[in-house]
Amino acid sequence: METDNAAEQQHEGEQWIEELLAISQEEKMTPKQIAILEAAIEIFSDKGYSAAATSEIAQKAGVAEGTIFRYYKTKKDLLLSIVGPTMSRMIAPFVMRNFDGVLDGPPESYEAFLRAFMVNRLEFARKNFKILKILIQEIPFQPALREQFAENVLGQVLERVTAITEHFKEKGEIIDMPTPAIIRFTVSSVIGYLLARLLFLPDSDWNDEEEIEQTLAFMLYGISGPAVRPETK
Amino acid sequence: METDNAAEQQHEGEQWIEELLAISQEEKMTPKQIAILEAAIEIFSDKGYSAAATSEIAQKAGVAEGTIFRYYKTKKDLLLSIVGPTMSRMIAPFVMRNFDGVLDGPPESYEAFLRAFMVNRLEFARKNFKILKILIQEIPFQPALREQFAENVLGQVLERVTAITEHFKEKGEIIDMPTPAIIRFTVSSVIGYLLARLLFLPDSDWNDEEEIEQTLAFMLYGISGPAVRPETK
Amino acid sequence: METDNAAEQQHEGEQWIEELLAISQEEKMTPKQIAILEAAIEIFSDKGYSAAATSEIAQKAGVAEGTIFRYYKTKKDLLLSIVGPTMSRMIAPFVMRNFDGVLDGPPESYEAFLRAFMVNRLEFARKNFKILKILIQEIPFQPALREQFAENVLGQVLERVTAITEHFKEKGEIIDMPTPAIIRFTVSSVIGYLLARLLFLPDSDWNDEEEIEQTLAFMLYGISGPAVRPETK
Amino acid sequence: METDNAAEQQHEGEQWIEELLAISQEEKMTPKQIAILEAAIEIFSDKGYSAAATSEIAQKAGVAEGTIFRYYKTKKDLLLSIVGPTMSRMIAPFVMRNFDGVLDGPPESYEAFLRAFMVNRLEFARKNFKILKILIQEIPFQPALREQFAENVLGQVLERVTAITEHFKEKGEIIDMPTPAIIRFTVSSVIGYLLARLLFLPDSDWNDEEEIEQTLAFMLYGISGPAVRPETK
DNA sequence: AATGAATGAGGCTTCATTCAT
DNA sequence: TATGAATGAAGCCTCATTCAT
Q: Which Gene3D superfamilies does its entry note (chains A, B, C, D) (predicted)?
C-alpha cells in the first residue's frame, strides 16, 4: 500500500504499470513493449482509439514506428492487448471461489459484502482508470470486445452475482424483488459513485469511507425521509 | 403513443425524425439536409465520429459527398449540428418553470416528481437514443461539447435540481444527507434504468410502468429486507 | 479629365471602369456583367487566377454562382475576357498611324517621342494596373494569352518601334547600336520606372514629371559622371 | 564552363541540380528528396504553384504522393523549401564583404564593378532560372516570401548597393542624380537583359560578352547619337 | 435572365502497415 | 531485434460547372 501511494504520487494515473510489470515478468515483456503499452494507453484514453495515430504512440514510447508492429500485428491488436487482460482482471473477483481477495471468508452479511466489494473495485478502478475509459469507449464499436464482455460479464459474473443475491434474499436481508432489478440497482449505485469519484469530479475532496457508507445506506434504505417512511407513521 | 409505436416498428431507432421534422419546418431544412442528418446519426452512432467517413454518410443519404459540405462546413460541424440541439432539448424540462411539460403543476410529492421525471425522460431518451449515444461517446473528445455540457447541465440543471431536492428535504420527504449525494443516487438509478432498458437489453420484454415503480421504490426505501430493517427488529 | 480624377479619388485603382463602361455601351454589357468583371479583376489580381474561386467572385459581384457561367462559358473565358481587350488597348498607340493620341503629329525628336510615350503609357498603366498585373502573372501559363501577346506585341509593335528607332538612328539622334538592343534598353528603363512607380513603391511621393525627365536623361546620356566622360577629359 | 554546357544540353534547365547536390551533401538529402525537389521545381515553374498538383509532382519524381509529405509538411512548405534558400543565395554576393566571389578585390571602377556583377548574376540566374521564375511568380501571393524578400533585398542589399553607388558618385564616376534613381536605372537594365536573354528569347544566338559590353555602354553613356550629344555640338 | 442546389472529380493530407537494412 | 523510409488507400474538403426552376 505504501509503495502504491508513492507510485501514485510520482506519476498520477499510471498506477496500472505495477500490474503490467507483474504481467511483464510472467510474459517476458521487453522495456520497449511496456513503453508502447504505456504510450498507447495514454493516447487511446486521450483521443479515442480511432483518432489516435500509431506514429504518435511510437513517438511517445520512444520507439520507431515499425517497432509497434513487431509486437502487435495491427493497431487493433494493440487495443485488444490493452483492454483484454484488464477486462479479465476486472471480473477476477467474481470468478474466484468465495470472492477470494474480496472477502476472506464467506460474507457474513449482504451489507458487508457490498462494502468489501465497493472498496475493492474502487481501488481497482482507480489503478486502471485510463484503461477502463478506453474499454467503455470502445466496447460499442469493437465486436471482439463486446463478445468477450458478453461472455465473461453477462455470462459468468451475472451468474455468480445472481447466486449471491438470491442467497441473501432467502436469508431475508434483501427484499423480495426480481433479482435482475436488484442487481441493476446496486450496480448503478456503485458505478455512479465510481464515475463521480474518478471521472466527473476527480479533483473534489472525497472522503471515500464516508461516501461508501452513505452509498451503502442509500442502497439498503433509500432516501425517503421520516415524513414518508411507513414505519414512522 | 400508438402512432409512435408504429413509427418505431417501421424503422426502429429513427424516432428522432419526428422531432427533426418539427425543426425542419421551423428552420426550413431541405429533404437532402434531413437525409444527411439521418445518415450521419446512423453512422456516427454505429462507428463513432472518428471512424465514420463522410463518403459513407453521403452514400447512405443518397447525396454527393460535396453536398454534405454545402450544409455543414466541416465534419465536426455536422456532429455539432446533431448533438448541440439535442443537448438543449435534453435539459429543456429543467430550465422551464415548474417543470412544465413534466408536471402540470408544482409537484405534490417527491415521489410524484421522480415518477413524472422518469416517464418523461425515458420517452425522450427513447426518441433520441442514437443521438444520445453519440453525445456520450464524443463528449470526452470534443471540447466544444464539453463546454456546452458543463455550462448547461452542471450549470443550470444542477442548480434547479438542487433547489427541488432541498425543498423536499425541508418537507421531510428526503432524509438528511448531503444534497450532492442524493442527486447522485437518484441520477445513477434513473440512468441505470435507461441504459439497461435502451442500451444493454433493448430486446427484453420490459414492463416500463412496473420497472419505474420498482426503481422508485428502490430509490425511496432501498433493498434491505425484513431481516435487517431497523423498524422491524 | 476632371471627372477622371474624381473617380480616382473615390475608389483608387478602379479607374478601369471608365474604359469598361465605354466598352459596355458599345458591347451592351449588363450591370451584372460589369459587376462580375469588376469582382474578377479584384480577386484575380489579389490571389492569382488559379487560387481565385468563382464562388468568391460571384459573392463579391453580388450575383449567383451560376450567373457567371451565363456570361462566360468557363473560368478561363472570364480571364481572357479581362486581359484580352486590355492587351489590345495596351498596344493601341503602336498600331495607329503616327501614334495618334500619343503624338499629334510625327515626332520632332526622339526625346520628344520617348517623353510622350512615357507619359501616355504611365497613364494607361495606372488606370489598368490590376489588369496588367493579372496579365503579367498569367502570360506564362496561358497559351492563349502568350499567342495573342506574341502576335501583337512581338509582331506589330516591334515592327513599328523598330521603324521609329531606325528612323532616328538615321537622323543621328541615336547611336549606332543594334536596334533590338536599343529597344531593350528603352523598354527596360520605361518598364523599370512603371514597376517602381506603381508596384514596388506606390505609396512614395513621386514627382512624375521630374522622374520622367531623369529617366529620359538616363536613357539618352547614361549615368557616367565627369570623371569618366570621354568628352570631358 | 564546358562541363556546365554539357550538362545544359543533357537536360536543359536543370542546372540548378549542381547547386542542389552541393547542398544535399551538406544537408544529407536522400535521392528521393532530391527527385521531389527536382520535380516540384519543374512543375511549379511550368504551371504555377496553385495549379501544380502534388500528385503530379509525385509522379514526375517517381515517388508515392505520401512521400512528399514525409519531407515537407505541406505543399507550401515544399514551395518555401525551394525558393527560400535560393533567395538567400540570390543576394549572397551583396552581404559579403567586398563582394567576394564577384570581385576579387575592391572594385577599381564603377564600370568594372557593374561588369563583374552582370557576369556573376547572369551565371547565377542561368543556373537557377526556373526557381527564380517561381520566386517572381509567387512573391505577390505568399506573404512569407514577401517578408523574406523585403527583409533581405530591400533591407540588406539596398543598403549595400546604396553605399557602393554613393562611393562612386563621390569619386565622380557617376553623375549627381538621386541614388534611388540610379539604382533603378542600373537594376532595370541588368534585369532587362536577363529577362530578354533567359526568358523571352532564350533560343536566339546570344553573344553574352558583347551584349554585356553594350548594356554597360548604355548604362554609362546612354543611347543618344552624335546629333544630340551636347559635347559634340 | 438569373438563380443556387447539387454534383463529382480532383486536391491536399494522414496514417496504418510493410520491408530492406 | 529494431529501424524508419516508403507506400498508397482513404479521408476530408474545394470548386468549376450544370441544370431545374
A: Homeodomain-like, Tetracycline Repressor, domain 2
Chain E, protein-covered positions (CB within 7 A) = 1-20
**Nearest partner of A112 among A205, A220, A206, judged by Cα:** A220
Give C132-169 pLDDT, tens digit per residue.
999 999 999 999 999 999 888 888 888 888 988 999 99
Whether chain D lies against chain A with 3 or more Cβ pairs closer than 8 A is no
| Chain C residue with the nearest C-alpha to that of D141 | C47
Question: Confidence band (pLDDT; 50, 70, 90) for C17?
Answer: low
Q: Quick check: D213 and D188 in contact, CB under 8 A?
A: no
Q: How far is the CA of B78 from the C1' of E11 (A)?
A: 22
- Residue A175 half-sphere exposure, CB side, CA atoms within 13 Å? 17
Contact C94, C162 (CB under 8 A): no
Axis-axis angle for helices D129-138, D75-90 (nearest 10): 110
Is residue B14 pLDDT above 60, yes or no?
A: no
Are the CB atoms for B160 and B91 separated by under 8 Å?
no
Taking an 8 Å cut-off on Cβ atoms, the answer to whether C51 and D141 are in contact is: yes
Each residue's pLDDT tens digit, B177-230: 999 999 999 999 999 999 999 998 999 999 999 999 999 999 999 998 777 776
Q: In this structure, which amino acid lies at residue C233?
A: K
DSSP letters along B105-162, please? SS-SSHHHHHHHHHHHHHHHHHHTHHHHHHHHHHTTT-HHHHHHHIIIIIIIIHHHHH
Amino acid type, C70: R
Q: D96: helix, coil or strand? A: coil
Q: Where are the beta strands (DSSP E) in chain A?
A: none
Which DSSP category does B198 fall into?
Answer: I
For residue C154, count other CB atoms closer than 10 A to its CB: 12
Q: Which of residues 66-95 of A touch strand F (CB under 7 A)?
A: 66-67, 69-70
CB contact under 8 A, B231 and A232: yes
Angle at B222 between CA B220 and CA B205, to 5 degrees: 90
**Ramachandran angles phi, psi of B174, nearest 5°:** -120, 140
Which H/E stretch holds residue D108? none
- pLDDT exceeds cutoff 50 at B51: yes
Give mean pLDDT, residues A107-118.
88
Question: Å from D127 to nearest chain C CA?
Answer: 19
CA distance B215 to B31: 41
CB of B128 within 8 A of CB of B16?
yes
Q: What is the pLDDT of residue A25?
A: 55
Query: Among A184-198, B136-150, C46-60, C92-106, which is the least confidently predicted range?
Result: C92-106
- Please name the residue that has the C-alpha cell 547565377: D124
B89 touches A at CB < 8 Å: no
Strand pairing partners for A174? B224
What is the structure's pLDDT at A160? 87
Tell if the CB–CB gap between B225 and A172 is shorter than 8 Å.
Answer: yes
pLDDT at C94: 76
| Chain centroid offset of residue C108 CA | 24
Through-space separation of residue A32 CA and nucleotide F4 C1' in angstroms: 16
DSSP C64: -
CB contact D143 to C (< 8 Å) = no
Which residue type occupies C196? Answer: A
Q: Residue B104: pLDDT band by 50, 70, 90 thresholds?
A: low
Is A31 a residue whose pLDDT tops 60? yes
Which of the listed ranges C82-96, C160-174, D24-38, D86-100 does the model predict with the highest average pLDDT? C160-174
CA distance D102 to D123: 11
- Specify whether the CB–CB gap between A140 and B138 falls below 8 A: no
Q: Is the CB of C54 under 7 A from strand F?
A: yes
D124: nearest Cα among D100, D156, D96, D90? D90
Cβ distance A109 to B225 less than 8 Å, yes or no, reads no
Q: Is the pLDDT of residue D3 over 50?
A: no
